[in-house]
Amino acid sequence: MEKTTGLTNDLKVMLGLRAARGVTDIFLGTFLIAHFLNISGNNVVPISLYNVAWAAAIGTMFVLMGNFIKGKNKLVSLRIAAGMNLIYLLAIIFLREKIIDYIVFCGAWYGVSIATYAFPFNVMISEKVNKKTMTKFIGYSAAIGSLISILMPLLFGIFITVGSYEKTALVLLFFTTLEFTISFFMKSKPSSVETFKLKNFLKTLKKDYLVKQAYLIEYFRGMTMAAGALNVMIVLYVVYIFKTNLNLGIFTSVFAGFTILLNILFGHHVKRCHFPRILTASMVFITVASVFFVINPANYSLIFYNFCFATAVQILNTIVDVNLFNISNHAHIKKSNRIEYFAAREIFLNLGRVTSFTLLFIFALWANFELIKYLLLFLTFVIVLIAYLSIRLNKEISDEDENPLQS
User: Fold this and answer.
1) Residue 81: which residues within 8 A CB-CB, separation 6 or more?
2) Which residues contact 278 (CB under 8 A, 6 or more apart)?
3) For residue 405, what are the CA distances in angstroms to 139, 160, 213, 330, 394?
4) CA distance 35 to 39
5) What is the dihedral of CA 188, 192, 198, 200, to 10 degrees?
6) How far apart are CA 100 and CA 106, in angstroms?
7) Three-state SS for 2?
8) Would you call 314 helix, strand, or coil by DSSP?
9) Can you give the C-alpha Rg of the chain in angstroms?
């Protein structure tokens, strides 16, 4: 272990890969959604279909890729993901506004790209990070993501305003190349010689309270704060109320500044015993913000909601990540079953995403844009439920740590 951060060189390289990937994901997530909204004339229906397609593709790929990730070098999958993003950016450059005609295919393509990146990356975190450094690694990872979220949205907003989406996509080709290159500085090996047995693993969940609770939280997280419909709705409202991509970039960057500060403090100072108080505070802040916005959906109420989402909700998200990875290292999750553990997790996570984007699709068909705020209120209360379940789960994890022989 290195004295300065407690992270090995391999883990630092993984953080570098996380950074390169994060730059591209901000564009392909936040700003591409805004682009789809603009070229579709503020029509939320195609955006809903796009997100249903990528969420369904992720969940499907995690099942199909199980044997490949378990028995092969996981770095191959990471390089495939970078190549797929490269092709996607080229499609944006050459198709221009016609890309809206292929929106479902684009969603599915992006979903496969996410799966081929996230699946091996999550497994490598579980394999390479122990419980003593997990909070620090997740905190630093979130801080890096937040730093990127400060700089890149502002730069993207400027590039798109003075240039175009196509020119911005051209610049991002550098980062996909960097992502591909970084993977050659990492080390990995097959996780197990055993075959992928997801069905057998799911049967064991009937007796495993910790894993069942973790997956229930993942389902709700997929509905809300893990690239679910709530994230997209916040982008839609910022574009709808503040109009321009530059404003979207400014607000995204400013609120990301609060997130990075909190995540640095989290990585340095927060211990598991602090989680319940942090989770309780998160529940209070996001509830007040959502009710305030629904009562008066104006620019200042949206700013307050974004502030709470960038602070309270993101810290909650970080705590959920810590619990998820810590459970993957418990004695009752055999090393040979880590692939199944994360594959099943993605199924529940993406079922939640599909659920929330289907709700958004229904609202887009039958309600006007202003009424979508009530779906935002509902999804915010789901976040409160996540915080409550996480408090209970954290206690169980602590108890098991004190009694490691129990399962």
Assistant:
1) 21, 113, 114, 116, 117, 179
2) 270, 315, 316, 319
3) 28, 56, 20, 10, 18
4) 6
5) -160
6) 9
7) coil
8) helix
9) 20
Instruction: Give the pLDDT confidence of 268-295 residue by residue, as tens digits.
Output: 666 777 788 888 888 898 899 889 988 8
From the list 9, 322, 346, the residue with the least C-alpha distance to 202 is 346
Q: Which two tokens stand for residue 182?
A: 């970084």
Give the whole-angstrom CA distance, residue 124 versus residue 235.
31
Share of the chain above pLDDT 90, in %: 11
Q: Are the C-beta atoms of 390 and 319 separated by less than 8 Å?
A: yes
pLDDT tens across 325-334, in order? 888 777 667 6
Q: Specify the DSSP class assigned to residue 228.
A: S
- Residue bearing tokens 């997280």: 221
pTM: 0.71
What is the rounded average pLDDT for all residues in the chain?
Answer: 80
Rounded to whole angstroms, what are the CA distances from 244 to 73, 157, 161, 331? 44, 8, 8, 51
Q: Whose structure tokens read 């579709």?
A: 40
- Which amino acid is present at 337? N
pLDDT of residue 191: 60
Provide CB contacts within 8 A for 212, sequence distance 6+: 205
Q: Answer for the pair 286, 312: CB distance below 8 angstroms, yes or no.
A: yes
Domains of the chain: 9-402 (1.20.1250.20)
User: What DSSP string runs through 314-328?
Assistant: HHHHHHHHHHHHHHH
pLDDT exceeds cutoff 60 at 406: no
Which token pair is 23? 């730059």
Q: How far apart are CA 128 and CA 113, in angstroms?
A: 23
Tokens of 268: 């340095």
Q: In this structure, what DSSP letter does residue 97 have?
A: G
* Residue 85 φ then ψ, to 5°: -65, -35
* Alpha-carbon span 251 to 181, nearest angstrom: 32
Q: Give the Cα-Cα-Cα angle 320, 106, 68 (nearest 5 degrees).
A: 60
DSSP classification of residue 328: H
Give yes or no for a contact between 220 and 386, defined as CB atoms under 8 angstroms apart.
yes
User: If you ran DSSP here, which 8-state letter would residue 192 be given?
Assistant: -
3-state secondary structure 58-76: HHHHHHHCHHHHHHCCHHH
- Structural element, H or E, at residue 50: helix 44-64
User: Is residue 400 over pLDDT 80?
Assistant: no
Q: Which residues contact 271 (CB under 8 A, 6 or more apart)?
A: 135
